[in-house]
Design brief:
The complex is a heterodimer of chains A (about 110) and B (about 120). Chain A is mostly beta strands and about 110 residues long. Helix content of chain A is about 0%, strand content about 55%. Chain A contains no helices and eleven strands. The termini of chain A are far apart. Chain B is mainly β. Chain B is built from no helices and ten strands. A five-stranded antiparallel beta sheet of chain B has the order 1-3-8-7-6, with no helix packed on it. A five-stranded mixed beta sheet of chain B has the order 2-10-9-4-5, with no helix packed on it. In chain B, strand 4 and strand 5 form a beta hairpin. The chains are: A mainly beta (about 110), B mainly beta (about 120). Chains A and B meet through strand 5, strand 9 and strand 10 of A and strand 4, strand 5 and strand 9 of B.
Amino acid sequence: DVKVTQSSRYLVKRTGEKVFLECVQDMDHENMFWYRQDPGLGLRLIYFSYDVKMKEKGDIPEGYSVSREKKERFSLILESASTNQTSMYLCASSPVGGAYEQYFGPGTRLTVT
Amino acid sequence: KQEVTQIPAALSVPEGENLVLNCSFTDSAIYNLQWFRQDPGKGLTSLLLIQSSQREQTSGRLNASLDKSSGRSTLYIAASQPGDSATYLCGPRGGTTDSWGKLQFGAGTQVVVTP
């Protein structure tokens, strides 16, 4: 079974802090994704990566950056957290190409106060 | 930009009834479409992946149909059970150069199955 894990289920941070959200997958997938999910807005893609050290912006990249130094790990970074970044963050992975399913992690509920 | 609509937004049925969940999308140039379920506060669990060349895909009590040209997919769940209570999301995957590989999501249909 594919397993996607996220470093925290719940996280509380203060405005202005630098926040790291970590995602690890164990299936040697090339593609990894970060989404945020908000009531009424659904899931929106923040960033994705097709390979190590490669990244592409999704629909809402502002205020975020990412890092992929190893194939299995994809990090989302909030350089200076703001209250409007309070959300559920979901990581996903899939094999290379468009034909395959995306597998999701359990999510991190981030609250910025 | 792909717009995805799921109707109804919420659905409550008694146990044993069949469920019909609808998904429509504006850009028919998709590679495939994935259906997910999401339990409260949890991540997404993949249910079915239907390729753009397919009309139907089945897994147990679940059946998904796809009419790519009209931008519609339907998820059928037969003989519903209380354990089917969840939010169901559809995600068409882009097939053009700009949208390649990216999923766009609908807001979901929240399903409650009462015993």
